[in-house]
Amino acid sequence: MDKLDAVTLDALPLREDLRGRSPYGAPQLDVPVRLNTNENPYPPPDALVEDVTEAVREVAAGLHRYPDRDAVELRRDLAAYLSVSTGVPLTERQLWAANGSNEVLQQILQAFGGPGRSALGFEPSYSMHPIISAGTRTEWVPAPRRDDFTLDTEAAARVVAERAPDVVFLTSPNNPTGGSIPTAELEAVLRVAPGIVVVDEAYAEFSSQPSAVTLLERYPAKLIVSRTMSKAFAFAGGRLGYLAATPAIVDALQLVRLPYHLSLLTQAAARAALRHADATLASVAKLAAERDRVADALLGLGGTPVPSDANFILFGRFADAHAAWQSFVDQGVLIRDVGIPGHLRVTIGTPEENDAFLGVAKDVFAKEV
Ligand code: PMP
Q1: Confidence at 369, pLDDT banded by 50, 70, 90
Q2: pTM of the prediction?
Q3: Are strands 33-34 and 312-316 parallel, antiparallel or unpaired?
Q4: Which residues carry this modification: N6-(pyridoxal phosphate)lysine (predicted)?
Q5: ipTM exceeding 0.90?
Q6: Does the CB atom of residue 175 touch ligand 1 within 6 A?
Q7: Which atom of ligand 1 is nearest to the CA of 37?
Q8: CA of 39 to the centre of ligand 1 (A)
Q9: From CA 259, how far away is CA 295, in angstroms rounded?
Q10: Whose CA is nearest to atom 4 of ligand 1?
Q11: Whose CA is nearest to atom 1 of ligand 1?
Q12: Which residue among 78, 102, 133, 235 has the greatest number of ligand 1 atoms within 8 angstroms of its CB, and so is best to mutate?
């Protein structure tokens, strides 16, 4: 046995509740067409790359000092972006940022979840919600969606009232199924929730529904809207997520965040990227049109695409979804098996990538019948 493997995971004094668990991990395979992690397929525009490079060069001279612990200027820029895109005036006191929205969600559960507390979500949904709950020792309470993956608002309000979770997750548009939750339906849950309601809007820029930010004024003690620059903003590698909430909630998160969690480089790069929001977000309309084209084409091939308001499509039906996933990989197209029987999820890519996907889909569906 290799010396480095002399100590196994089983032999470590690991927390009992983490034993036997698997880390989050979409396979990262080196194939020609990668449509599996819901990124924007278009690389950042040249002007953005130049600006980020220049911004990082400028701050590099100050790398011997810790960064602004509260990332105030970045939060101001995020507030300006979100105010313009939602029509709701926001200040930096209502914004908080971290390394990806996953870290934002973790901080929310550190502050409002934890041992003896619970978080509820409507499945299937984003698999990190239960994983972050486990990591923070928050009890996870799964609640169902309808068979067509939409949210049954009355049933949702009932289960939230009954189970009284400390935190509710509502994902809109929902990953991996793609549908958005209309404002009236969000409100039905917000009205009865006893604790915090997190509306995870990672894909909001692709959606035709208004943002839950419009509800902040009405539910200031409950509502948190989380967002990310990883998707529409084409900044997944930059790791920047953020949220909007009432200032007291931002104060609460400062109790659990690690000091200086956002590096000088991250803050500078994200601010530079935000200056190019208009150019980056120009891809959103193109991707939405491609999404609709791919959905129609899947229908034409005998597939069953679930209506999507995001930059991905859940589709079926396969007798054996995992075998179908493998057929896609074997033909050079990496999509995602999200564990929903009979279904796979494809991220919308460039028109060429989508054509490559559809070419393989034709072959895979032909073998199904
Ligand atoms: N929320 C949802 C619904 C997501 O799909 C993702 C990414 N897959 C995230 C949050 C986290 O993204 P990030 O940490 O890159 O901001």
Answers
A1: low
A2: 0.96
A3: unpaired
A4: 231
A5: yes
A6: yes
A7: 8
A8: 10
A9: 45
A10: 202
A11: 202
A12: 102
Joined together, the tokens standing for residue 303 give 């597939």
CA atoms 81, 84, 86, 91: torsion sign: positive
**What are the CA-CA distances from residue 223 to residues 104, 189, 200, 338 (Å)?**
14, 11, 11, 28
Pick left, alpha or beta for residue 43 (phi over 0 → left; psi -120 to 50 → alpha; otherwise beta). beta
- Ligand 1 atom nearest to 228, measured from its CA: 16
Give 345-362 pLDDT, tens digit per residue: 999 999 999 999 999 999
Superfamily of domain 9-45+279-368: Aspartate Aminotransferase, domain 1 (3.90.1150.10)
Q: Under a CB-based contact definition with an 8 Å cutoff, are residues 280 and 286 in contact?
A: no
Nearest to 203 by CA among 223, 224, 174: 174
pLDDT in tens, 232-267: 999 999 999 999 999 999 999 999 999 999 999 999
Start-end of CATH 3.90.1150.10 domains in the chain: 9-45+279-368
- Pinpoint the residues of the chain covered by CATH 3.40.640.10: 55-277
Q: At what angle do helices 247-254 and 100-112 cross, to 10 degrees?
A: 90
Give the residue with greater pLDDT, 24 vs 100.
100
